[in-house]
Amino acid sequence: MRDALVAAAFQLFLERGYEQTTVDDIVALAGVGRRSFFRYFPSKEDVVFPDHERCLADMTAFLHDGTDEDDPVQRVCDAVRLVLRMYAENPTFSVQRYRLTKKVPGLRAYELSVVWRYERAMAEYLHRRFAGRRDGALRADVAAAAVAAAHNNALRSWLRADGRGDASAAVDHALGYVRTTFGGPLDDSAAEEQEEDVIVVISRRGAPMWRVVQEIESTLGQN
After folding, report:
1. What's the predicted TM-score (pTM) here?
2. Is there a domain that residue 209 lies in?
3. Alpha carbon distance 145, 160 (integer Å)
4. Domain that holds residue 156
């Protein structure tokens, strides 16, 4: 029934337009009642994005199932590919939805809210992995935003091409930039080694150089 409602909705959206189609029109074409519609979809907007809740749940579970040995940025790059797979499973529907959202500002705003939820799921995972590390929260938020932006750039290019071409290769190429910038080990020792320590030694005017050197060596030995 859920699939029948989605099919009926998009048939009407394409024939009449989104704004001109009502929930009553959709249920009439699908041959069900209004209660059946709202059992599956809270609103008309939700019928345009029927698989995102499931995909978000799958992504969250995938991130949760990761281990401490996983490279965190690689893990979120792998997670976002679940979104790509959802779109690529039905290119015709994905392209139709893309064209529809471009025409309807309300749907575009709804889609952006969905993208934000994916991004926050990735950011929350990265916050846990980067906790207690230098600029951990900043790194988590920026990396999550970069993964979302890279994925969406490649995905929209594929949709603009009417679903032709290798979407997976395009997304891999885009995510490569993110892994190069934010990936790698979590060890902060390299960054710490780059910091310069400034040591101030106070010595008596006229003290012999050997005494000054001795005081410096003594101070360095204490650090």
Report:
1. 0.77
2. no
3. 22
4. 49-186
- The reply to whether 73 and 29 lie within a common domain is no
- Six-digit token pair at 74? 């690689």
CB-CB contact of 169 with 155 (8 Å): no
124: domain CATH number is 1.10.357.10
pLDDT single digits (tens) 179-205: 988 876 655 544 444 445 566 666 666
User: Encoding tokens for residue 160?
Assistant: 């603009």
Nearest CA to 128 among 194, 54, 63?
63
pLDDT tens string 93-150: 999 999 999 999 999 999 999 999 999 999 999 999 999 888 899 999 999 999 999 9
Side chain identity, residue 86: M
My answer on whether 10 and 85 are in the same domain is no
| 139 and 66 in a common domain | yes
